[in-house]
Amino acid sequence: MDIFDNSDLEYLVDEFHADFDDDEPFGEVDITSDSDSDFMDSDFDFELSQSKTNNDTSALEARNGKDIQGIPWESMNYTRDRYRENRLLHYKNFESLFRSREELYKDCLQVEKGKNFYDFQFNTRLVKSTIAHFQLLCLIIESATANSWPLIKPEFSSWESSWRLKETFVNMLRNLVWATSKHDVYFMNNYSLMHWSSLLQRGKEVLNVAKPIVPTMKQHGSLSQSVSRVQISTMAVKDDLIVAGGFQGELICKRINEPEVAFCTKLTSAENDITNSVDIYNAPSGSLRVMAANNDCTVRLFDATKFALLNSFAFDWSVNNISISPDGKLVAVLGDSPECLLADTGSGKVIHGLEGHLDYSFSSAWHPNGQILATGNQDTTCRLWDVRNLSQSLKVLKGNMGAIRALRFTSDGRFLAMAEPADFVHLFDTEAGYTQCQEIDLFGEIAGISFSPDTEALFVGVADRTYGSLLEFNRKRNHSYVDSIF
Q1: DSSP state of 109
Q2: Around Cβ 176, how many Cβ atoms within 10 Å?
Q3: What are the tens digits of pLDDT across the range 1-30?
Q4: How far apart are CA 69 and CA 74, in angstroms?
Q5: Which of 13, 306, 364, 468 has its CA 20 to 30 A from that of 33?
Q6: What is the pLDDT of residues 235-262, one digit of tens each?
């Protein structure tokens, strides 16, 4: 897991507050609990806050000119275009391996942008997606001069003696949003795993991970143990099972319709051995499996019925991401190495190494046909691999400014979504050979992306202190109607 200095990517609220005297210039509503912990009360109903905020944005409002995130650019001292220009200019992508990118960029596919595969549908700020950054070093103080902060109002340029507090974080993976239907989404809000119904515009806490969690399934020889105050680092949802990993190596497994947690444990006792990635899949035998990858260079395989540990595979570097092929036979293993690996899910035996990336890798996704694997890297590219010929990648897709942190194919294989750490989600048309792209341009860190299983909806979680929200897009259909003659 790499370390990322977040000082150059300021939350929007910090820069916007420089233009206003009041503490909450945009009607921000704090919907978190006032208790000692940072989670919502389990009985909290998002509808109760609806009367307190008018910051949601509908498709009609967006068509009439309102910013999809509700950012009041007309009140700013700079335009959206100027803010975007400066954001692109000053964003610094973290590099673990310092290698020339010139040849890499020459290999990137030329893409036609401006397409519209998914229409903006709704944005709600009642949903506060959050990313629990693991703080490695705090209170790094830097001087804030006019050159350092080009978007602050001119009159603030005299504050050359002012200071800002900075933090250095682990740059987390972004798999904290999962859709189980076009109306049902699961996401993290501080210490609460929440369910949101876009149809009812209501949310409900599914799991509180701040309180002590006592697993209901305890068997002789089981790894099951209680955990508490878990900072969720990754999650996955499949069928009726939710699996989440934590910063201290925790693994939590819960059935959606059951109130208690079935299984939880600490996969490693070593400090800071984060559970970086989890996946739920059907083995070739048909049985449900859970796989987890950790910073301790180990991938662990569990049965999803009794949650017995079936196997563990050790690698030479920290494993940042795993994804299982649709047939359940292969696992893509990515981590603190420019090489990605394909391994057997049952034995962990490495079948092939994938070479081409220049830095550490953080995301992957399989096309539903099982033949194409997409891998996302800190070198700001996604590579596409054909498992029938792994000598080199098929195509190289490039982001705008940061590492590729999340990848998702639609269930029909038509589109590939590629998310950067902040600001950009790219949608590629696979039937056009990935040469046509829709670019979703927003502001804020991206907590996760997820297509609904029927491909009709795309959800994007935005983590920001003021503009944290859930963006919803609907698949654009070109319906043809034939007149009926009676």
Answers
A1: P
A2: 28
A3: 544 333 333 344 344 333 333 333 222 333
A4: 14
A5: 13
A6: 999 989 999 999 999 999 999 999 999 9
